[in-house]
Every structure is written in C-alpha cells, then in structure tokens.
TrEMBL record:
Organism field: Salinarimonas ramus
GO cellular component: plasma membrane
InterPro entries reported in the protein's UniProt record: ABC_transp_permease, BCAA_transport_permease
Gene Ontology terms, MF aspect: transmembrane transporter activity
Keywords assigned: Amino-acid transport, Cell membrane, Membrane, Transmembrane, Transmembrane helix, Transport
Membrane topology: Multi-pass membrane protein
Coiled coil: none
Tagged with keyword Transcription: no
Transmembrane segments: 16-35, 42-61, 95-114, 192-216, 236-257, 269-298, 304-328
GO biological process terms on file: amino acid transport
The protein's name: Branched-chain amino acid ABC transporter permease
Localization terms from the record: Cell membrane
C-alpha cells in the first residue's frame, strides 16, 4: 500500500505539470482554434524567468576585508550581493533564498507580454490557415526561442534551488498511519501540486464566474454571433492567449527546483502535453486537467521496478499507447465535444 501511495504522489506531481501545460494549450485551441506547438517553449521561458531572477538577486560586488586573509596572507576578497547590501544580510539573504516564489511576480508580466507579442505578431495571421500550417510555424517559433535561450544561458542545466524551508522531505507515511519513514516525499513536490491545483481552480473560476469569462466561453461556442453583438471578441481572445502563456510560464517557474531548467525542457513536455490534450478532448478544459492527472499517475505506476522488469520500456510508451486506444475508440477524447478534431 505504501508503494501505491508513493506512486500516486509521483503521478500527481507529474500530472500537475501536464495539466497546467495542457490547460494553456486547450485555452488557445478552444478560443482561437490554433494548434500552438510553441506552448512548450512558454513553459521553458517560465523556468528561465526563475533562473533570471535568481541570477539578478545574486548579483554582487567585491570588497576587501582587511580583517580576514587567505592562505597566502593577503586581505580576503568578499563577494556581497547587492540585495544584502541594500536590505541587510538577513532580509537580503531571505530574498535570495525565496527567489523562486518571488519569480512568480516577475514571470506574470513577462509571460503576458510574450503571449501578446506572439499572438499579435505571428499567430493571428494563421487563424484561418490549416492546422498543419499552424503547427509548422509555431514549432519553428519554439525552435527559435529554444536556441535564443541556449545562446544566452548555455546548454547545461542550471540548478535553481527551492527555499530552505521546503528543501527537505515530508514523512507522508507517518501522517496516514504507516510506519515512520515508509513514505518520504519532497516538500517542494507537494507545494507544486498545491500550486497547480490553485492555478487550475483560479482559471476555471475566472471563466465560470466573471462576465469576461462568460463572454469568452460564448465566443468559444459561437465566435461570429458574439462578434455581431458588438463585442470585440478578438481583444478578449488576445487576453486569453496571454493568460495561457502565464499559466504555462508559472508552471515552468515552480518546476525549476524539481528539474534544473535547460533549453530543451519545453520540447520534453510539449509532445506529452499534446497527447494529454488529445486524450482529454481537444477544446475541453476539464478534459485536459483530468487527462493530465490520470496520465501522470498511469506513467508513474508504469515506472515501478516490477512493471519495468516485466515489460521493459513500458514507462516510455504507456501514454502513447493510451492515446492510440483513445483515438481508435473515441476520437473526440474523454470529454471532447462531438465533431471537434474527429
């Protein structure tokens, strides 16, 4: 039972990332009808927002400490971060330590601007083009963004630590009545799951309970009629593209301590996220979230040693096998509308 609970926790962790990225993909497809293959790059950009803020906060200047010497007897050179100099060692050190959560505030405007620029500068010219054209141009954009990140940050992963308060592990087994130490799980992965749940709930609440969200949902169902009512639906859809970029970016920010950001991490998640969208149903927001968590848990169980020993490599293909079965038996996906992408 403890092994099952551990795999469920691992699946929720993976599923959180899949669900957040798939949610953004579905927002874009549901509102604009665009298949955005650059969405994984937005996840990557979010992770590098965390890296960038961490680098900025650690920027320092050199001073000479006459009271201390190196092994040769020379006065010791000390690197002092500017934030520690401005706010003091304790406050400045805390700001540096909490750089990843603070990067959320940094990433929101950055990702919104990136989303608006992407939609207004490129994507809007492909609304009425075939999906194949949309895939090619957005995939090309993803490669460009990937190479820009590689040129500025290099090809190696850049570790971005979580705050010390969440750097340890939580004894989940003792909490649910098992022996102490039977289920040990990192704090930050639990934080990531909670953060993903809050973001998903916020997006659904925005679409369900605000006038803006209701208009967007009406536009998703019948864009032409909403336009005839005198509503500038294009501006609202641009906002939704920006919102989707923010969701993907925030997913990347909080994932940075789990997997050190690198220039190709967007591509690693992109294909899996599209599989999640297809399984959940193209254009279905609840389907994207449900499929994200279900496939994350399924992949986690397929990665167990006993399963891999019995079926070598199954953990690498299990999601695609599920997608094949879904496409053959229910082309619209688990919760997709009839006729959409069938």
């Amino acid at each position: 039972m403890d092994a099952i609970i551990l795999q469920v926790l691992n699946g929720l962790d993976k599923g959180s990332a899949y669900a957040l990225i798939a949610l953004g993909l579905t927002l874009i497809f549901g509102t604009l009808g665009v298949v955005n293959f650059a969405h994984g790059a937005l996840f990557m950009l979010g992770a590098f927002c965390a890296v960038t803020l961490n680098v900025i906060l650690r920027a320092s200047f050199t001073t000479i400490d006459e009271t201390r010497t190196d092994f040769l007897g020379n006065p010791l050179k000390v690197e002092t971060p500017y934030v520690e100099y401005w706010f003091g060692p304790e406050v400045g050190g805390s700001i540096i330590e909490w750089s990843v959560p603070l990067a959320i505030l940094f990433a929101i405007p950055v990702m919104a601007l990136v989303g608006i620029a992407m939609e207004r500068g490129l994507v809007k010219h492909f609304y009425k083009r075939p999906h194949a054209d949309q895939i090619l141009v957005t995939f090309g954009l993803a490669i460009v963004l990937q190479e820009i990140i590689k040129a500025f940050y290099g090809a190696n992963p850049i570790p971005t630590p979580a705050p010390d308060a969440f750097s340890g592990s939580f004894d989940f087994g003792a909490l649910v009545g098992f022996d102490a130490g039977s289920i040990i799980y990192p704090y930050w992965r639990l934080v990531y799951f909670g953060f993903a749940a809050a973001v998903i709930a916020g997006v659904f609440a925005f679409l369900q309970f605000t006038t803006f969200g209701m208009v967007v949902r009406a536009g998703m169902a019948d864009r032409e009629t909403v336009g005839l009512l005198g509503i500038d639906i294009d501006r609202r859809f641009t906002f939704m593209f920006a919102l989707a970029a923010i969701v993907a970016g925030l997913a990347g920010v909080m994932y940075a301590p789990i997997n050190a950001p690198n220039y190709h991490m967007g591509m690693d998640f992109l294909v899996l996220s599209f599989v999640v969208v297809v399984v959940g149903g193209m254009g279905s927001l609840p389907g994207a979230v449900l499929a994200g968590f279900l496939l994350g848990i399924l992949e986690s169980f397929a990665s167990m040693a006993a399963v891999v020993t019995l079926l070598p490599g199954i953990n690498q293909v299990i999601i695609y096998l599920v997608a094949i079965v879904i496409l053959l038996t229910r082309p619209r996906g688990l919760m997709g509308r009839k006729g959409v992408m069938e």
